[in-house]
Amino acid sequence: MQKGFDFDPSEIPAKTLSLKRQISGLSLLRLLLFVGVLGSGVLFFSDSGFWIFALLVISGAFVKAIQRFNYLKDQEAIYKSLQKIQLENQFRADRKLKELDGGEEFLEKSHPFTNDLDLFGEHSLFQLINRTQSQKARTILADRLKSSFSLQKSEEIRSAVKELSLKTDFLRSFESVGEAFYQEGKSTTAWQTWMKAPARKKSFTLGLGIVGIIGGLILGSLGYLGLLPLAWLGLWTLIGIPFLGLVFGDLKEADERIPSSDLLKTYRLWVELLEDEEFENPLLVAQKEVIVQKNGPKASILLKQLDGHLLWVQNRLNLLYIPLNLFFWTDLLLHYRLMTWKSQWGSLISELPDALADWELWVSLAAFEKAENQTCETEISKELSFSALGMTHPLLHPEVAVANDFRQDQSGKLILLTGANMSGKTTFMRTLGINLVLLNLGVSPFAKRLQVGECQLYTSMRNSDNLGESVSSFYAELSRIKGMIDRLESGERLFFLLDEILKGTNTEDRIAGSEALIRQLEELDFLGIISTHDIELSRLEEKIDYVRNFSFHSEVKEDTIEFDYLIKEGPCPSFNAHKLMELMGIRFDGRA
């Protein structure tokens, strides 16, 4: 792969077309050279020994043509991957995420906040961040999105991500290599286990392999010169079969376990990029040292050696290889070289997939950081408080997202959020929650400034019924609230977001239950926001000293309802459900 290439997106189509033309020309040349190899070989065996020189020259040219062809195909794959990455980045910039991997399998109904904040699924944060290729890296990213909060540690990660986000060429190269060549194929766990297992070296294989090569050359030469009956050549082949059978099983297992050449190429190119890159952040330096050893051969060289062994192992059933193997006993030397390599380096190389999966995560976070270009100042405090300046929702297009300032501390640790339908209550609560997830992940939140105390996040927004479990949506919500209360009473510090509290029951019970819950929380350590349509609950601000009212408003006009999506102090002065129903065609008192 070409390293450090100049990147101009507008030139990619032209370069791709040029590569296609070169590849087409080489394909024809390769075919002609192959015919030349066959022709000169026939002439050598049937006419004159002098044709050996033509055979060697044409064979050398054929090998060079293959190498050049493979190089150009790799370059074509890289440029195609750059085109795809460019298109996907445009999807992300436009917030058109439908075509991107949503990680739906990582949704977890019982999780404290995953299902409520659009972390996975259609139009999700996972789609916005994920640039990984391996299933292992996808899982690591998902686990990080769902992980318990450790905000102080996230500050260290954010510093590393910031440094990595400035290394544009490294990020582009790492991502394009994965997109171009990574193919999961065989289970990485299976080949890692095989690599770690003791190598089954057989001491006799080297000696017998040398005997096979020398004996085959001598007998072949004598047979060609007519000094030895051809029957002796057949006998030699029969003698070698039992020896070849002794290593057949090991080589067959290696063929089944060793990953594809494309996967090894991906690992090798990723490692080469890391070997050539310098980092200052201690986290990045430590992550690099897992792969780039200070002593011994480079991991990229070892991977290239393994790929060479793989090439021979995978071609053992090739029609050209079988007669050579039977005559020269080449499997014996192949087995010796592979098992010697495995005994020396197998355990070390087996760790690479896990280490490189971690780098896939780093690259995803850094590419996201660079693409979104957020410059949020963050502060993690000991006091449980929250303060945001200019905070927006990351899944909304930047041109339409409305920024809000918001502050909450222990003097008003419980906020009652009222507002008209569609005025922005739920989106605001999700904005707070998803930005806290970004903060914990180690990337910049979508705000100018964010200060928050160490806490855990808990939400209850999308509670739905489950016929299979005979669970109603109201019971599901109560179960979520019970989970929250249990965690608070166990001593956890929570920032909780409850949307449309107790909406599954009648107004009288809803108001009574909401007040009872709020009073029950008095002695516990939390920040919380509860949204409701019950304006009667806003009177609790006068009765309970830690309750504050905030709201979103709407302006009802003759044929429209207008929203500014800005949070305001105090309860909502008016609601719009009546007007919305009128606009949808519901008639009141016979009026349209």
How would you describe this structure to a colleague?
- There is one protein chain.
- By secondary structure, this protein is of the alpha/beta class.
- It has three domains: 1-94; 130-373, no CATH class; 377-583, 3-Layer(aba) Sandwich (Rossmann fold), CATH 3.40.50.
- The chain contains 20 helices and twelve strands.
- The chain has helices at residues 12-46, 51-94, 125-129, 135-146, 151-165, 168-181, 188-196, 204-224, 230-257, 261-276, 282-291, 299-314, 321-328, 330-350, 352-372, 425-441, 473-489, 507-520, 540-543, 577-583, and strands at residues 377-381, 386-391, 404-408, 414-419, 449-453, 456-460, 494-498, 526-531, 547-552, 554-556, 561-563, 568-569.
- Strands 6-7-8-4-9-12 form a six-stranded mixed sheet, with helices on both faces.
- The radius of gyration is 33 Å and the shape is elongated.
- The model is unreliable at 1-5, 467-471 and 576-581 (pLDDT under 50).
Mean pLDDT value: 87
Number of strands: 12
Please outline the major beta sheet.
6 strands, mixed
Spatial ordering of strands, largest sheet: 6-7-8-4-9-12
β-strand percent reads 5-15%
Helix share of residues?
55-70%
Q: Distance between the terminal alpha carbons, to the nearest Å?
A: 69 Å
Number of helices: 20
Please tell me how large the radius of gyration is. 33 Å
The computed structural class is: alpha/beta
Number of domains: 3
User: Which residues sit in consecutive blocks of at least 5 with pLDDT less than 50?
Assistant: 1-5, 467-471, 576-581
Question: In one word, what is the shape?
Answer: elongated
Quaternary organisation of the protein chains: single chain
Protein name: DNA mismatch repair protein
Transmembrane segments: 25-44, 50-66, 204-224, 230-249
Pfam families: MutS_V (PF00488)
Organism: Algoriphagus formosus
